[in-house]
Every structure is written in structure tokens, then in C-alpha cells.
Amino acid sequence: MRRLYLQIYVTVVGIVILFGLLAALAWWAARDHRHESHLLDGIGAVLGEVLPPPGARPREVQILLDRLARRFAARITVRAPDGRLLGAIGKPLPSPPPGRIRSGWIRAPGRGPVFAIALPDSRWVVVRPDRASRAWPAAGFLAALALLAGAIAIGAYPLARRLTGRLERLQGRVDALGGGDLSARVAVEGRDEVAALAQSFNHAAETVQGLVEAQKGILASASHELRSPLARIRMAVELLRPDDRPELRQRLIRDIAELDDLIEELLLASRVDDAEALIRREDVDLLGLAAEEAARHGATVTGAATTISADPRLMRRLMRNLLDNAARYGAGGPVTVEVAPAQSGGAVLRVLDRGPGIPEEEREAVFRPFYRRPGMREGTDKGVGLGLALVRRIARRHNGDAHCRPRAGGGTCFEVTLGTQ
User: What is the mean pLDDT of the segment spanning 1-9?
Assistant: First the structure.
């Protein structure tokens, strides 16, 4: 049972039932059984004076019992000390167990209590009240307890459901915020602790939204401002004489291209988490898109035609980043792109290379922004450190995810799942 409101509801009802059982047990333990025995002995003394003497014929005993039957709604049986039947009203009841000398209730076939009353002359009168006349003292208590349990069960359910319903709505807004919807807020209902929690969540969400928007604004502004001096540097390099230190010229051109790629990735990173970045959804043929991008790298494409609803610009960026990564770290080996529809809808995209592979402890770290594997900061890695981070962000914006897995036979497999809208 995972639903909180069911746990609260069942707990309340269970407490009532447990209370009733304990109360019934305490009532039974507190009963004065000796008092009952004395009461039955007194009734036996009166019956001993009313009934014919022990030597009377059974016919006389039966006549008296017939008279009692007009006044009492009960089955009554009179037995001799040895258990012999002397008379009965209705079907004869069993005699008390051998060796018993005191009055009290006994076990007998059928339903309801059976009382054995010892007479002063050692005879027994066995009585079972009719169902209509039985007066069990605990019946009224149990009936009241059942009514109380029913009332609590009816009243506790709406209370538990209302409380946990507010928590469920709060959970939904928390999930929405975690999924990237920075505008997620929850309605504040009431003035209790749950309402205070909702207010705290709204305040925290506003703070997070403000910080993220400020960070994205600064990032976008800085990226735009970098383009102007970068363009001037490119122009200055172009104006250099071709024979003036050509190695320096080529190195500057590569550095400018790397800075240009970095600025482009930063601008895209600042927009990809925005919900409005995906309003241009349309049907995208992943196999065709993979074929176009793979042609730029000489990669092989296999799979089935798969169409999903996605942002084509972001899908192209995702494909290009994966292929660039495979070409950069694949050690010059063949690169393969696989496209297949997913069983639950959407699509699965895999980019495989035959490079040295990635250790298991680093397969998640490669998706962090600006992460470079050890030994790659000394000029051997020409990437900007945002390509795989953007791949995962784009996949998650399309209800999917990206993972790094080992490839059978050596190499790396980047698997991207893309969900439906």
C-alpha cells in the first residue's frame, strides 16, 4: 500500500478496531464469574423448591415444565445426578460434564450460551434461552462499537484524502519544477503545515527561477558581446600577409574557430532549457536526418525509417554533436549510426565508434558541461566541452535521455532515447 491517504485511513480504522478488541477483552477479564455462579446457585435453590421432589415420577416433572414453558421463552431440560433425562421443554439439552458440581455455562451443540444450574438435591436444570430472548451483555457494547467504527471510517476518509490530495498536487508541481518548468507554482490551501510547505515551495521556486534567468541572461549577453571582438580578431588575421609566420596564422584561425564554436554552444545552452525553445515541433525523419549528418563524417547509417515530433534544429544539433564526438575520439575508426523505433513509442538513436572506450566511472561525467577526461587539457582535446551536455539536455527536452555504454568488441556507444510528446 503506497498511497498515503490509504495508510492514514486504514490506520485510523485499525486503531478503532484494536480499541474495541482490547475493550472487549478487558470487559471479559473484569467480569465477576463467581457472582454469576452464586446467582445461578440461587436460581437453583428456588427451582429445587418449585420442582417435584427427586422421587417424583417424570410425568409430574414434565407437567411443571409445561407450565414454565408458558412463561419462559427457553429450552429447559431436567436431568438426574447420573444424567438421566427427567423432563424437557423442546429438544433435550446435554447434561453437564461428569464431576461438575457448580453452576455455570457449558459447551453444547448449536449457537448461544447454555447454562447448567445445580439444584440442592444434585439434580441439574440445563437452560438455553431462545434467540429472541437472549440478552448477551456484550451485544450492545459491540453494536455501539460498530457504529462508532463506521462513523469514524466515513468521516476519516474525506479528511485523509483532502490532506494527501494537497500533498499530491505539491508533488506534481515539484516534479514539474525538476523537469525544467521554472514557472511551476502550487496553490496555497488553508493555514496549516501543508499550506506553509506550499508557500515555502513557491518562494524557493521564485528564487530558483530568478537565479536561472539571471544566469541565462548573463550567459547570452556575454556570448553576444564576445562576437564583436572575435570578428575583429578574425578580420585582423585575414589582413596579415600570407608569408608572415604562416604557422602562427593557422593556429590563430583554429583558435578563433574554436572560440566561435564555444560561443555557439553557449548560446544554444542558454536557450535549450527554455520551454519556448520547443514550440516549433514538427515531424522529423530521424533516419533521413542521420543520413545527411553522417555524410559529412563518412559514417555508416543503418535502421528503419522513424518519424517523431521534435524540434528539427535541435535534433540536427544533437546528431551533429554525437558524430563530431565520435570522429574526434574514435581513433580514426569507422563510425556507425543506428536508428530504430522504440517499443513504447518514440525512437532510439545509437552512435557507435571503435575508439579506446570510456571507463565505467567516467560514463556519466562526460555529460557534465566542460568536463574533459584526465590528460585531455594539454591540447589533445579540441572540443569545447559542451557537446555531450547539450545532447543530454536536448534528449530530455524531448522526453528522453542520453547514456554512454561500452560497445561489444571495443569502442563506445552513445544511446539516445527520444519520447513522444
Answer: 61
With contact defined as beta carbons under 8 Å apart, do 273 and 309 qualify? no
Work out the pLDDT band at 379, boundaries 50, 70, 90: very low
Torsion, Cα of 290, 296, 299, 303 (10° steps): 20
| Cα-Cα-Cα-Cα dihedral sign, residues 318, 407, 342, 368 | negative
| Spatial distance between the Cα atoms of 39 and 35, rounded to a whole number of angstroms | 6
- pLDDT band (50, 70, 90) for residue 5: low
Q: What is the pLDDT of residue 274?
A: 57
Average pLDDT, the chain: 77
CATH number (1.10.3720.10, 3.40.50.1100, 3.20.20.70, 1.10.287.130) of 179-273 reads 1.10.287.130
- Residue 176 Cα distances to 51, 83, 113, 146, 179, angstroms: 87, 82, 64, 44, 5
Position with higher pLDDT, 200 vs 150: 200
Confidence check: pLDDT of 341 > 70: yes
pLDDT score recorded for residue 208: 83
What secondary structure does DSSP assign to 349-401, as a single string? EEEEE-SS---GGGTTGGGSTT---TT-TTTT--S-S-HHHHHHHHHHHTT-E
Q: What is the average pLDDT across 201-225?
A: 75
Nearest-Å Rg of the Cα atoms of the chain is: 45
Report residue 249 as a C-alpha cell.
596564422
Looking at domain 280-418, its CATH superfamily turns out to be Histidine kinase-like ATPase, C-terminal domain (3.30.565.10)
The residue length of the chain stands at 421
Count of beta carbons in the 10 Å neighbourhood of residue 162: 13
Q: If you ran DSSP here, which 8-state letter would residue 110 be given?
A: S
What average pLDDT does this structure show over 19-41? Answer: 63
Q: How far apart are the C-alpha atoms of 285 and 287, rounded to whole Å?
A: 6
The domain ranges of the chain are 1-31+136-175, 53-131, 179-273, 280-418
**How confident is the model over 58-101, as pLDDT tens digits?**
787 787 777 777 677 778 888 888 888 888 888 888 888 887 87
Under 8 Å between Cβ of 282 and 309: yes
Q: How far apart are CA 166 and CA 184, in angstroms?
A: 15
